[in-house]
Structure formats: C-alpha cells, structure tokens
Amino acid sequence: MAAGFVRATVNTKRSTNHDPVAETKKQASILESYLEQRGVALPEGYLSCKVILSNPKVCTIQSSNFPSEVVTYDQWVQLKPEPKSMFSGWIKGAFRSGKKEMQESIHQKLNFILSTAPMWDRLELKGNKYVLGEFLEFKGKQEDVEALRNIKRSKISRLVVQKTSMLGFAPSRLQVLYSPRDYRSDGASASEWKEVNVRSSTEVLFQPESSDKLRKFKLSSIVSMSLSA
Q: Region entry Disordered: which residue ranges (predicted)?
C-alpha cells in the first residue's frame, strides 16, 4: 500500500446494495471507525472514496451523469504514476491537504495499522479445519437471527461456539460467546464476553476467498469465527 492511499473492493455481484457509491461510502465510514479505534483520529473530511470502473463494458450511460466519486475506465487508463510514489489526479484528492508534518505522521500510522490489519474473516471448523473469506450473515429461525443481531464486524471481533445442550424435548441448542472489538488491549477479559443461546441448526452464510460460490456452515460445525475490521 502506498502511503495515504487505501483501496477497497466492492463486489456488486455479491452485494444486495446495487449502488456501488453508497456501498463504498459505507466501507469508508467503517474504515474511519476502525482507524479511530486503532488510535488514529482523522481530521473531518480527510478521507474520501472513489469508485473505479475498471471494465470498459460497464459504461452504459454518459459519464457526465456519474457522481463525482466515480472514475470512468477512460479516466482510469489515463492515470500515470508519478515519481516517488506520489499520487496523480483524483488520488491526491482522496487525502486532503494539510501541514506536511501532520500528513507524514498520519501516513506513517496508516501504513503501520493497515499492514497489521487482518484481511479476511476466519472460520475455525471442527477437525482442525479453517476457511478464510467474508462473513455475510446468519441464517435460521427469526428468533435465533434476532438473538445474534449484535454480532457485527463493527462491534465484534470474535465468537466462540462453546457447547451443545439438550433441554428436554427441545431442539439441540448452542452457546455462542462473543467479545467486543477493542484495539487497546490484547483481547477481551472473561467478564467482557457476551453469551447467547441459539438452535444448532442456525447457519453462517460465508463467502470463501478462493471461490465465487457462497457457502452455509452450521454453527454446530464451527469452533470459532474471527471478523476482520
């Protein structure tokens, strides 16, 4: 990653949000929140976002009708790298001007934080198996999905499926523990872990990083799940 330039990819084939600009702004907001939690509070308006149309076939309307955040294919191919890893055109505009010392300090912190940030969500399955990719949502009975509503990457870093229990003739249930996201320490203490009980038939909808096919994993097959920010 070049200093000060962050790239986020939005896959519109997978997303239910068909407005890539709105989705990218949402991702930028999540990134700002993540950086703040890691100790970098960016000045207001310091970070902006761009949507790059890298496929020439996607341009079906006049570029003049595009929002200012959109970079067309023609604009993209005309960009030329400048010496000393400087940014050209709209890339410079992604980071607002300011004092040189402040810029350098922020860029150094960004380089360190983003180089140590996890890139994929991680499922640990029974049998010592692991799957990297993107956690999308929970599937199952409405009351179980509702009980898991607080497990979002913006709030939660990890969950653990602890045990299965039988309650009379009730369906088998799982105890799910999850910890709040906190970058100021090595991890949540035992008192910070939250607990929720759901049916073992509840599933995790997951996009493996090496496949275009979505997969569903039953919670009963999962040992833990780590969420990237």
A: 1-21
Question: Mean pLDDT score of the chain, rounded to an integer?
Answer: 75
Last residue of a domain, one of 67, 89, 116: 116
Model's pTM, two decimal places?
0.51
- Angle at CA of residue 47, ends 43 and 51, nearest 5°: 165
Tens digits of residue pLDDT in 74-120: 777 777 554 444 344 444 455 444 566 667 777 788 777 776 676 78
Q: 101, 116, 131 — which closes off a domain? A: 116
Same structural domain, 157 and 71 = no
User: What phi and psi, each to the nearest 5 degrees, are found at residue 111?
Assistant: -60, -45
d(CA 50, CA 25): 9
End-to-end CA distance of the chain: 17
Q: Cα–Cα distance between 157 and 168 in angstroms, integer?
A: 33
Cα separation, 157 vs 228, whole angstroms: 7
Identify which of 167, 161, 177 has the alpha carbon closest to the alpha carbon of residue 125: 161
